[in-house]
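Hi there, hope your week has been kind to you so far. Would you mind checking whether the tokens look sensible for this chain? I owe you a coffee for this, so here goes:
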Amino acid sequence: MILRSALRAGRSLRRVPLVQLIVEHGEPYRAPHRCATDTQDGEESSAVLNWWGDTPIGHRYQLRAYSPAPAHVRDEKPLDHDDGAVMADKEVNRMKKMRVFWTAQQTFMEYLHVTRGLSFPDAEHISKHSPVFVSNLLHQVKDAIKDPVEGDEAAFRSKVKTKEIRDERATKALERLFRYYPINEFEPFFESMGLKPSEYQPFLRRDLMFLSDDETVLENYRVLCNYGVMRNKIGQIYIGAAEAFSFGDGVLASKLRALEDLGFSKSTVIKLMACCPAVLTCGPHAELKIIEWLDDIGIQRDWIGQFLSVKKSYNWRKMVEVPQFLAELGFDNEGIGKLIRQHPDFLLDGSGNALFRAVVIMLKAGSGKGDLFNLFLDFPDVQARSFARNIQSVTLFLTDIDVSEEDIKKFVVANASMLGSARVKKANSILTYLSVGKKRLWKIIREEPRQLMKYTLGLKVSRLPPCDEIAEKSLKEKVKFLKNVGFAEGSNDMNKALKAFRGKGDELQDRFDFLVNAGFEPKDVSHMIKVAPQVLNQKTHVLQSKISFLVNETAYPLSVLVGYPAFLSFTIERTKARFLMYDWLRERGLVPPNFALSTLLACSEKRFFKYLVLKHQKGPEVWEKLKKEVAADKNAHCASEDDQHAIVS
């Protein structure tokens, strides 16, 4: 039973620290990396590059989640591509803008239509949507279409005439190529269906060269086209159900009608084929077992079609576990149907994985069957993956303000529906905005949990009213400290510092003394506090690590902090990563020496990337590598500190 297994797993997970579970399951929703092309594809790409010359490496938003409205696709930055593949893609895109490329497409279309006998729509689509293949054709005739050496041919003054002559040479060269060196027509055919060379290579057969050699493939291709499937999406179906393209006359059309007879509209059938091609080969009843549940819970079968995406794939057999799980929780069919209508992502996001990930987190927090039932009765209006991420943010927030694990579990289980509705800010930010200590903040949240929803992302946080006696005593200590270091009582500088300070007066004095002992003059430290009073909100060991980094690992003297004390406000990870990137650029002569600290640190991440990282073509790669190294050093340091605490205890 799904619920019994989940509860059993939850009991075993309770022996694992809650924060560890969050780290293991945190941020699981990043887009998958694109696959790099294989060796053969790389060789073809290099051929294109060798002809056209090397070029330096340069570099969907939906209205709402699970909306039937079409997604607006934006260009995405390629991930994990080999440099050669990225260069090849850029080169092909550049070639597509050239006149000779258009000429090659026209010649290739005439070859397919006139010589090979393909219908005009098929020939036109294949020629216009196989840029890699056309580029390789041009590479094979590159010598024949080059401009003649001066003296071999009369020089034309007209640039238009020169281009026309070049087009004629390209056309004749390609016609000779087609006449004496037959091409494998399946390569541009597969590419025009939306497949990359690395994807269609396994489907190329040695005994087939021409599309006419396998009429069934072409006939079934036309059946899908006539049904309404976009030609450049058919490749996705071919990869998942290549056998369907071997069906005899009328078989594929009958399978499409069978899907419609199940209650699906034509648009839903097209989406089903794209995201689950197996319905054409294994049969809809064997693959789409979820439709039986849809009938039982009172949802029309075609309802699910509006939420399907052709860019995703679904495990329909695993999807059945979602209504089964809800039934075991205690929901009747009507309740399950209502819940699925309100949250279609329960079924479709990872085929139920996102929902079960949220359930695992709640089980880890100590939720039982009754708690889960109540949670789903009042589930917030967010996706399951967002719910899980929001619960994680609350758990990490409570951990950062030193709440015990047992108290965290009780708090999360008791307020799960509310806590899962929004993502809270980080603890450091909230403590700074509120100007409050950790114990008082936890007391406020424990007494009024809804107060935590005022600290979510996107909301402005206002300071808490002071606690009479404690606040008055703390204020007197801070005023006394500021007067001792040279501030005039009631001045703007003092008011600014009082608003920025956190902690007690004696703590501020200790941190002031530490800076003096580090090598600053008392008057310089006073000046630094006037400019950036938030510097004294940090513990002495944090200040020491930042000063040590500046003095020992950079070429800057300690005195620069007098002019820019805000340096001490930035995290050591941000500072270290930016300095390492600056040093890398300086070694290559791309930036002047002795950059101002404010120039390196005060600018946003986006601006730093634009004006410094992009100064070198390998800058983005080096920048990502440096950030990962700095993060790894931080994690290793934290782990070593935990080990030391464990040994001491």
Notes: Residues 619-648 form the longest helix (30 residues). Residues 42-59+78-211 form one domain. Residues 23-82, 642-649 have pLDDT under 50 and may be disordered.
